[in-house]
Structure formats: C-alpha cells, structure tokens
Design goal:
Layout: H1 3-10, E1 17-22, E2 28-34, H2 37-45, H3 53-61, E3 64-69, H4 73-87, E4 103-106, E5 114-117, E6 126-128, H5 134-147, H6 159-163, H7 171-174, H8 188-202, H9 207-222, H10 226-241, E7 256-263, E8 267-276, E9 279-289, H11 296-310, E10 317-319, E11 332-334, H12 339-366, H13 368-382, E12 391-400, E13 403-413, E14 416-417, E15 423-425, H14 435-452, E16 460-464, H15 467-480, E17 488-492, E18 497-499, H16 514-548, H17 555-565, H18 568-573, H19 576-583, H20 585-595
Parallel strand pairs: 7-10, 10-11, 12-16, 16-17
Antiparallel strand pairs: 1-2, 1-3, 4-5, 4-6, 7-8, 8-9, 12-13, 13-14, 13-15, 17-18
C-alpha cells in the first residue's frame, strides 16, 4: 500500500459514510457504505483477498480514496444506492434500480389515501422516503393507521357522491380501521386534520403520538386488558426507536446545489452537494489555495462558478451558509435558518470541516512549522494579542503550610517547552505563605535580570492565579517600566478563567481549543516543576534536621555529609571509617553510633 493511502486510511473517522475508490486515471471504480469508515476501508488492505480475485484486482488498482460523512448507517445505505445508480462503477456488480426502496405517499385527492409505493409519479402527491428499512416503514404505517384511521379504498369520494348515498360502509369501518367518510360519518375537515397529524408523525414530530399511545396503554392496563396494553407498548417502543427521515433523501423535489466553505489564513475548503428529485446524487470536497486575503464570500463565488460548470449543473437554487452577491437573476441564493435545507447545509459543512482537519493534519506532518504557526496565530486571536506568542513564560508558587516556599518559571518557545530556560526562585524578602508578595518578588527578579543582561523579553507572561496574583505581577512590571510592553494574563484554576489587568470580567475560551490546551500545559508544567523543587528542598531540610538532632553534630557537619554521600540512607550504610574521613573521628563516631545504636 502506497504511503498516501496509508495516511488517508489512518485519518478516516470512525463514523458512518460512503467511500469511493479511484484508479490511476481518476476513474471511479467502486462505491461502498460503512457504519465505520475506518474499519470498513481498512479491512480491504489488512488481508490478501485469495477468496475473491476480483476484489484483489480492485484493491491493487486503488490510488485514491474519497469519502462523505453522513448521520447514520441508513443514510449511508441510501447515499450509496443513489451514487451507484448515478455513476455505475465497474466493480459495483449489484446495482439497484429506482424501485429498490419504498416511499410513503399521501395521494392528491379528496380524503387522501396514505400508503407505500415504489413508483414516484409527478401528479402533485406528497412522497416521503425512500426508506432503507422496510420493517421500519411498515411499523410507521401501522402506527399511523392505529393512531389516525384513514381510508384504504379507491372510491371517488366527491361531495355529490357522498350526499347521494352511493356508498356503504365496509369491513374496515366495522373493525375500527376507518371512520367511514364514504357515508358521511367523518367530515373532510376532520379527515384532513388527521392526515396533517399523520404527516407530522412521518416527519419525526412524535411528541403528540407518544402521549396518545402512552395514555391508551395505561387505560388498557387499568382495565386489565394486558394483551391490548402490550400491543400499545410495542407500538410506543417502535415510535421511540423511529428515526426521522434521512438527510440524504428529503422533501426538496427540484434540483438544488448546496455549497459550504471553511477557511483559515492560508487555506479554504469547500464542499458541494447536488440534490436531484429529493435525493443526493453528487458530493465532493476540495481545497482552494488562497493567493491574497480573499473573503469566504469571494472564494465561494469562485467555487460555485467552477463546480457548476464542471458538472454542467442547471439547478435554479443554490443553498449557501453566507449571503453572496450573485449576478444571475435566474438563480436564487438561499441561506437557510432551519428545515430540510438547513439539514443539507449542515451535512455539507460537516464534510468540509472534516476535510479541512484531514488536510491540515497531512500538511503539518510534512512541515511541522505550519502547525506551530497555526497554533500561535490562533493563540494571538483568542488572547487578543498584537503578535504571535512565540516566547511564553508562566509563574507558579509552591509551599507546604508556609514552609520551604519556592516559585517556578517555565518557558515555552514555539508552543513547546524550552526546559533549558526553566528557572526556580527561592523568595528572599517574603516571610510566611504570602502568594501575592512572592509573585511580586519573583516576577521583579526575573525581568530585572533579563533587562540587565539585555535578553529578549517574552511575548506573553502567564500567572497561575486569579486577580490577586496578577495584580502583584503587574506592580513589578510597572516598577521595571515594561508594563504595557509585555502582555500578561492570569489563569484561575477552578473554572479556567483568564484575567486581564484592569479588566473586571474574565475571558472564557472554548474548552476544546488548542489555545486553552497550551495554557493548561504551561500551568501544569510550572506546577510540576515548582512542586518537584519544593519537595527536594523539603526533603533536604528534613535530612539536615535529622542529622542536627544528633548531639554534638551541627549544620556544617550535616551539610558536609549530605554533600558527600547525597542521602541519609547512604550515611546509614556508610562505614565508620568513611564517615570519619568526611567529618573527623569524634563526630564520625557520634553519627555512626546514632544510626547503629540498635546493633550495640
């Protein structure tokens, strides 16, 4: 498998959709559906197809894979069927004709009938579907019939015929499946009201039907009619599991082109969906390389013109996410706010966003600098900076019940830790656990030294803490004369709030953004670095204290032993001769006796 195919397969989502295989000449060879695109496509390349020579030949010819994301496995099935009929790829041997999947029809007539059909006739009737699952469609029809009885006969129910009594009630009326509009027992207004309710149920507006079924189930149970209650329960379960009509097939019966676009500073990605007779029959996502700082509207106008010419589209309506200045008055531009058109637009945007993510990931693997620039530019926008924060420094204080206080300064350059630039600070002027005073001191010491040594100041300073710590750090920057020259923010731990000097309200960044992830990484790294040094100091102080508790041994003797042997454990294990060589014979005997008194 060539490297490019490996990258494409590794980037496939674990989501439902359809995939398309192309050969070296760009010819579409095969269209398939998948509940999980990653698992299904990977399966073609994870084994040698001894059992099926035709599959092996097809796999050997694949040089490119394209895919389209959909909302469900049923949508994938419907889109696969529509595209196979459209393109008839050579390796799709089981082509399905137009009659494969049934639809529900509400016939255009007085007292309209509702039934399923496989033939779509343009006679003004309303069609819903097609339905990939026949069982689901029949369950829906049965539910409608139970909840909203309608006629099944093909009688000509004109007002004249009904008044003249030309008909008589049939068995359907006797068993409760019809309210006999043929003999005037149900008015046309009441019948049409029931049909409107049935149409809402088909569209997925299920609340009213659920309430009715639940009430009937409870009434039957209260009357000890448990078999009847169980039937209602089964219908209610079917309704709960019923999925509203597919996005792939919708009510838009005229030809429509759907376009969406997502972009950043360098690239734009557009998606195109063609809808014909209510069915998606073409999808494609492509990249547009920016030459200048073109707007999304400019790029989308360009993409629409190119794609419509390429596919010879004559659609009179174009659905887009933003308003466009379109000169052709014969074509209407729609920016939908809801309904079927909005669902189609959302599907288009979903595919454009995933394509963008996939392509940028490939570019960043080939050129890591692209990723760095993207992250830094995003941080600049999110944090309202005037330049990308290539050099960031973050401060954190650590102490345990006021003992052994230590502050840490960690440095990130190009969004990555620069550990050689990390620094520890032991407060010199602060007594006790005073976070504000400690922050004021260490920030002053850090940047006073950088200024003294003519070193470059950071593009951003981050203080781990809320308004108090931030204000203390700002005081030091003002004292040094660099406040306003270097941006500074504080991050509060509890809600990940970002505070700015002289701004009462915090800034909240998207929890999933890379900007917040980098800031959290800085904060966590400063905390880790400070805690590590704090524990080391506390440990060393504890060891010195233990040695000083030996009568006749002072601080200098304790430090000399630790400097040479590094730990109390090694001092315990050392021989009398070794200890005596370090601190002298008399003190050596005292230390050795202290640790070996139980052996005397």
């Amino acid at each position: 498998m060539v490297k490019d195919l490996k990258e494409i397969i590794s980037s496939l989502p674990d989501s439902p959709g359809i995939y398309k295989y192309y050969d070296a000449t760009g010819v579409l060879m095969y269209i398939g559906k998948a509940k999980s695109l990653k698992k299904r496509v990977s399966s073609y390349f994870n084994k040698i197809h001894y059992e099926n020579r035709k599959t092996a030949v097809m796999v050997s010819k694949i040089v490119d894979i394209q895919f389209t994301l959909v909302e469900s496995e049923m949508d994938a099935l419907l889109l696969e069927n529509a595209l196979i009929k459209q393109f008839q790829p050579r390796f799709n041997i089981s082509l399905k004709d137009d009659k494969t999947y049934p639809s529900i029809i509400i016939k255009k007539e007085k007292f309209p009938r509702l039934f399923y059909t496989r033939n779509i006739i343009k006679d003004g009737s309303e069609y819903f579907g097609p339905y990939a699952s026949g069982a689901m469609m029949h369950a829906l029809l049965d539910l409608i019939k139970t909840t909203y009885p309608f006629r099944t006969c093909n009688l000509h129910l004109s007002e004249k015929n009904i008044k003249e009594g030309k008909f008589r009630a049939c068995l359907e009326y006797d068993i409760g499946n019809c309210l006999a509009p043929c003999i005037g027992l149900q008015s046309e207004e009441e019948y049409n009201e029931n049909m409107r309710a049935a149409k809402s149920l088909i569209k997925g507006q299920l609340s009213e039907a659920k309430i009715q079924l639940k009430n009937k189930m409870q009434e039957a149970a209260a009357e000890l009619q448990f078999e009847t209650a169980a039937r209602y329960k089964k219908k209610l379960d079917s309704l709960e599991n019923y999925q509203s009509k597919s996005t792939i097939v919708n009510e838009i019966k005229h030809d429509v082109d759907v376009f969406s676009i997502v972009s950043d500073e360098r690239f734009a990605f557009a998606n195109y969906i063609k809808v014909s007779n209510g069915i998606i029959c073409q999808t494609q996502t492509f990249e547009i390389k920016k030459k200048l700082e073109e707007s999304d509207a400019t790029l989308l106008n360009f993409a629409i013109a190119e794609v419509r010419e390429k596919y010879q589209s004559e659609s009179k309506e174009i659905i887009v996410p933003i308003n466009l200045d379109w000169e052709d008055e014969r074509i209407s531009i729609t920016v939908p706010k809801g309904g079927e058109k909005k669902k189609l637009l959302d599907l288009s945007i979903k595919n454009a966003l995933y394509y963008k993510k996939e392509k940028l990931s490939q570019y960043e693997k080939l050129n890591p600098e692209i990723k760095v620039d993207r992250i830094l530019n995003q941080m600049m926008q999110d944090l309202r900076l005037t330049e990308p924060p290539k050099h960031i420094e973050c401060f954190d204080n650590s102490n345990l019940q006021g003992t052994n206080p230590v502050s840490a300064c960690v440095v990130f350059k190009d969004a990555k830790p620069s550990k050689k630039d990390y620094r520890h600070f032991i407060p010199k002027t602060v007594v006790g656990p005073d976070d504000f005073a400690t922050m004021r001191e260490v920030v002053y010491r850090r940047y006073a030294r950088l200024l003294e040594e003519n070193q470059t100041l950071p593009n951003l300073i981050i203080v781990d803490g809320g308004k108090g710590q931030l204000s203390s750090a700002v005081e030091s920057l003002k004292e040094l004369g660099i406040y306003g020259k270097v941006p500074i923010i504080g991050i509060a731990k509890r809600l990940e709030e970002l505070y700015y000097p002289e701004d009462e309200l915090p800034l909240y960044i998207d929890k999933k953004s890379e900007t917040l992830r980098i800031i959290q990484q800085l904060r966590d790294e400063a905390h880790r670095f400070g805690i590590t040094h704090h524990r080391k100091r506390r440990s060393n102080n504890t060891l010195v204290t233990e040695l000083e508790n030996i009568k006749g041994v002072g601080p200098e003797t304790a430090k000399a032993l630790l400097l040479e042997l590094k730990s109390v454990k090694k001092i315990k294990e050392a021989s009398l001769e070794l200890i005596a060589d370090i601190v002298g014979e008399s003190k050596g005997k005292l230390v050795y006796a202290h640790f070996h008194s139980d052996q005397a």
